[in-house]
Amino acid sequence: MTSKPPINVLFLCTHNSARSILAEALLNHLGQGRFKGFSAGSSPRDNQQPNPLGLQTLHSAGIQTDGLYSKSWDEFAKPDAPKMDLVITVCDNAAGEVCPFWPGQPATAHWSYADPSAGNGTDAEKLEAFRQTLHAIRRRLELFINLPEASLTTLMLQTSARELAKI
C-alpha cells in the first residue's frame, strides 16, 4: 500500500518572521504527515530571523521550532523547489503584492492576521499578541486539516481554504 504524498502548503508574509513562521510550525505540528508546512517572505530583511517571541510562543505550546528560518519566497519559485499545493498569504501586505510564478499553479487563499510584532507594548503584551495570533491560526488550521478528503483535491483546495478565511 502506497501512502499519499503530503499536501504542501506555503505561508507567505512580508518578512517571514512572525505569522508565516507560526503557521508553518503549527501545520507541521498538527498535520500528522498528511500536510507539510513551509513559509517565506516577499521581502525578508538582510539577516532576518524568526521573531524570538514567536519562537517562545511556539515552544510554550509544545511545537517544534527546529529548522525554522526566514527566507525569500523566491526559493519556492525555483525549478527544484518543493511543489506547493496551496499558497496562503497571512498578512495583508503580502496579499497585495505580485507573487512569483509558482510551479504547478497551486491553489491560493488569503487568511488575514494582525501583526503580533507590531506596536510598542510591553514584552508581556507582545507575547500575548503572539499567543492570540497562534490561537487564531490554530483555529483555522484545525478546521483545514479535518476537511473531508474530497475537499482537498486541487480544485476544491482553493475553495475550501478561501471559505476558511471567513471564519
Structural commentary:
- It is a single chain.
- By secondary structure, the protein is of the alpha/beta class.
- Helix content is 35%, strand content 13%.
- The chain is built from five helices and four strands; from the N terminus they run βαβαβαβαα.
- It has helices spanning 19-30, 52-60, 92-95, 123-145, 154-164; strands at 7-13, 35-41, 86-89, 107-110.
- It has a four-stranded parallel sheet.
- Helix 1 crosses helix 4 (123-145).
- The longest helix has 23 residues, at 123-145.
- It is globular.
- The N and C termini lie far apart (36 Å).
Care to give the gist of this entry?
With 167 residues, this protein is an alpha/beta fold. The protein has helices at 19-30, 52-60, 92-95, 123-145, 154-164, and strands at 7-13, 35-41, 86-89, 107-110. The protein has a 4-stranded parallel beta sheet.
**Discrete helix count:** 5
Which regions have little confidence, pLDDT < 50, spanning 5+ residues? Answer: none
Helix content: 25-40%
Q: What overall geometry do the principal axes of the alpha carbons give?
A: globular
Main β-sheet, in a few words?
4 strands, parallel
How far apart are the termini? Answer: 36 Å
Number of beta strands: 4
How big is the Rg? 15 Å
Average of the residue pLDDT scores: 88
Structural class: alpha/beta
- Fraction of residues in β-strands: 5-15%
What strand line-up does the widest sheet have?
Answer: 2-1-3-4
The helix-strand sequence is EHEHEHEHH
